[in-house]
From TrEMBL:
Species whose genome carries this gene: Glonium stellatum
Domain (Alpha/beta hydrolase fold-3): residue spans on this chain: 46-167
Keywords: Hydrolase
GO molecular function: hydrolase activity
Domain of life per record: Eukaryota
UniProt protein name: Alpha/beta-hydrolase
């Protein structure tokens, strides 16, 4: 994914930023992304969570915002909400769950009036057609959103190589000292970072490469779990055990993923199908590493074209 491409990723969109909640004096922001050529009327909604291992990342980091998602959103003149959320290790898993929950309250209660106050044309949110998406950690939060909300509110989930179960580290990277072609810091890198955290500090946004080294170290040495906690609500493979509903889902994963093994996604899809045999669930496994879909296009990749057509149909069906 070229830097020049990323620089122009949002050229056809108007972006409006607001804080959807506050933690002390720190506002946690969401970006509301609206097509510049939008026409008056009601428009479907996409809520997209960014990735970054719950440790780095930010809502508008273009390198991780897959172009094909913006393309199909534009084709449907959809409104996109891309939120930030508190990050580990300054936050805990329970804080992130709170942020996801509060984000959805804001979407339902405040988004319509926020859009009305910002848009030059009269538009409304079509809450009958809601898609939640995310890559990596964002896919994890997209799945948790589907489990968290009332049945029928979310029509479909697009989960790109999500974390679905507890992780104890990445043994191969621990052995080689390399991950995604980049060096992994020593284990004490995490301890030094944690020791330097000021009491009460809130981190809810970090544009890579900021904190990538921290994300690598926490992931490889299994440190993330210490801050996520043991609440089964945070782990999709466990949370779904108590689920009474689940929407349509397209889950895609790279066969050669170094960070999150594809077997975890296969197992999660099997679990969803076992619990909800009447649900529409699509699993796509293709060659590639973590983030493999970033440079793919529906024009060149038939599997992506098929998947996009499938998820759009599930999202917009009555």
């Amino acid at each position: 994914m070229g830097a020049s491409d990323a620089e122009h990723r949002f050229d056809d969109w108007n972006i409006h930023t607001t804080a959807y909640k506050g933690v002390g004096e720190h506002g946690i922001e969401a970006d509301v992304i609206i097509p510049k050529d939008i026409k008056p009327g009601s428009h479907p909604l996409i809520v997209r969570f960014h990735g970054g291992g719950l440790i780095t990342g930010t809502s508008l980091y273009a390198e991780w915002f897959a172009p094909y998602i913006l393309s199909f959103a534009a084709a449907q003149t959809a409104i996109i909400v891309s939120p930030n959320y508190r990050l580990l290790p300054e936050a805990k898993g329970s804080d992130i769950l709170d942020d996801v929950s509060d984000l959805w309250v804001w979407v339902q209660q405040c988004l319509p009036s926020f859009i009305a106050s910002r848009s030059a044309v009269p538009i409304t949110v079509d809450f009958e057609h809601v898609l939640v998406s995310g890559e990596s950690a964002g896919g994890h939060l997209a799945i948790l959103s589907a489990l968290m909300l009332l049945e029928g509110f979310i029509n479909a989930v697009l989960a790109q190589y999500p974390m679905t179960e507890r992780r104890s580290g990445i043994p191969a990277a621990k052995k080689t000292g390399m991950l995604l072609g980049m060096p992994v810091p020593d284990e004490d890198f995490v301890d030094k970072h944690v020791a330097g955290i000021q009491p009460g500090v809130v981190v809810s946004s970090a544009a890579p490469p900021a904190r990538l080294d921290l994300m690598f170290a926490m992931s490889v040495y299994g440190k993330s779990h210490e801050y996520l906690g043991d609440d089964p609500r945070f782990y999709p493979m466990e949370a779904i055990e108590k689920a009474t509903h689940f929407p349509s889902m397209w889950l895609l994963h790279g066969r050669d993923d170094e960070i999150l093994p594809v077997e975890s996604s296969v197992a999660f899809v099997e679990k969803v199908r076992e619990m909800f045999p009447n649900n529409n669930v699509k699993l796509t496994v293709e060659d590639g590493n973590h983030g493999f879909d970033g440079e793919k296009s529906v024009e060149k990749d038939s599997w992506l074209k098929e998947g996009v057509e499938w998820i759009v149909k599930e999202w917009l069906k009555d």
